Amino acid sequence: MMSEGxxxxxxxxxxxxxxxxxxxDLDDIREMHxxxxxxxxxxxxxxxxxxxxxRPKAYxxxxxxxxxxxxxxxxxQARKDLTDALFIGxxxxxxxxxxxxxxxxxxxxxxxxxFSLQNVSQTxxxxxxxxxxxxxxxxxxxxxxxxxxxxxxxxxxxxxxxxNRDIYKLSPFKxxxxxxxxxxxxxxxxxxxxxxxxxxxxxxxxxxxxxxxEAGTGKSVILSSLFNTLQEEARQSHSVLAGTKNFLLVNHSxxxxxxxxxxxxxxxxxxxxxxxxxxxINNQKIEQADIVLIDEGHLLLSQADPYNNFNxxxxxxxxxxxxxxxxxxxxxxxxxxxxxxxxxxDLKAILKKYDADEFHLTDQFRMNASPVVMNWVNxxxxxxxxxxxxxxxxxxxxxxxDPIAFKDYIYxxxxxxxxxxxxxxxxxxxxxxxxxxxxxxxxxxxxxNTTDSKVTWSERPETINEVGSIYTVQGFDLNYVGIVLGPxxxxxxxxxxxxxxxxxxxxxxxxxxxxxxxxxxxxxAAKEQIIxxxxxxxxxxxxxxxxxxAVNDNLKRKLQKxxxxxxxxxx
Length: 571
Hints:
Layout: H1 4-13, E1 18-23, H2 26-30, E2 42-47, E3 57-63, H3 66-75, E4 84-89, H4 95-112, E5 116-117, H5 134-151, H6 159-163, H7 166-169, H8 178-199, E6 207-212, H9 219-234, E7 246-249, H10 253-263, E8 274-275, H11 277-282, E9 291-294, H12 315-320, E10 325-330, H13 344-351, E11 355-360, H14 371-381, E12 396-400, H15 403-417, E13 420-424, E14 438-439, E15 446-447, E16 467-468, H16 470-473, E17 478-485, E18 489-492, E19 497-500, H17 520-539, E20 542-550, H18 553-570
Parallel strand pairs: 3-5, 6-10, 6-11, 7-8, 7-9, 9-10, 12-20, 13-16, 13-17, 17-20
Antiparallel strand pairs: 1-4, 2-3, 2-4, 14-15, 18-19
Helix pairs in contact: 4-5, 8-9
Protein name: DUF2075 domain-containing protein
Domain Schlafen group 3-like DNA/RNA helicase: 206-551
Pfam families: SLFN-g3_helicase
């Protein structure tokens, strides 16, 4: 029960925010005398007129000395094109709150994509921390501020819509946890030391920094923040990184779209800074690079693949032929093709050519699931089907044997929360010939995903009526995910194990290169692992819930039996 003092403090926090508009010039700034603007910490937005610019510029900041800060901005040549200022105040503002609101506004402005921001990366160096009444500032007060900005014409979409956008989730300004921040700073210092040694003409061996982490451990967020800081420092004449030529490589077209969208909103990121590995390797205009970040490094080719225009021995060495430093994200449980299978000994042998450092991320940032649910998923991927974990207030775990009920569940979650989609293992035919191919025609009866759009698949409203593949959703979040376990996945009641039949898996390109293995047994094991890896990735997409529908009868019966047992245990 809330005390009288707490009730009064909450009432204070819900008082109206104060907005003051001024022209961004010295005379108008001098005229500011509004209470809670002049005498308190404030938020401010400096911007160009949206009516006169197709892509207006803006700068978001916070200060406790508004007049001094504005004088500094007016002297800054980078701000000379900004014409208007909006000041935001509140009687309860403190500097912890305004720092946090500033960061949130930058993230939402990037996702809203209405302005090209002049902000650089200093705010992103702040790590996640709590302060008094943080939830009230984050929820109630920030929502009031954002709605005021929408009324003022500075914002367009609602916060609910923006939270579901991938460019919001991958924003370089996302607040990092303390371990994430420490890792980012460690890598940044690592890169600076290397470049300093090179400038001093010391003999420097090429460097590889490997970040190990399973799905949902926040690897991509760290890379996004790190790359923005690298590119900022590359353009600062006083930095040891000044003039460095850096790149961020991604393996999926959907992820490339997201990073390129982010680059439209930030001053130091350019679309040309982002590429897929093979085009980067084959681009003769890029003879040398300094620092190369590689997201989803476990998807790099570990052997030649002439069909996809790669003729080298492996893509890591090919990248290092150009780079001085590589930062590699790696999860051995996420490779999806035999030709991307990195034997642990192979990777170790390659890393011995370079000075290599490694770091292991362990905290789960995507799924709001309990350890019991995470253990169940990990056991399932390990082919053990254990008693079902319960749902709780933070994460729903559902089993369905009826395809209509399964689809309706995801449809309803999408209507309620947004960003909820059906995905499937690659057990149903699909070709890139323009024809429509259905997933589980006798049950789910929905088409495979389309990808011919600049907008990522899960953010397009019409894709609620499609089924996403592993190649569409790897690396992305969903609020709720419904996974179809196709014909290659079944259950053996005698051995009490999940069974995998690679002959029924339809991603035949995933098996290309299997002849590299010394025996048929090794090749089959690699194919089975690809299917298990795809289950692992698909099951770990949902933030708030996971629903499972199995096509094969044995697995369907096993899951339903456990569902009944779990319900009886709850009685």
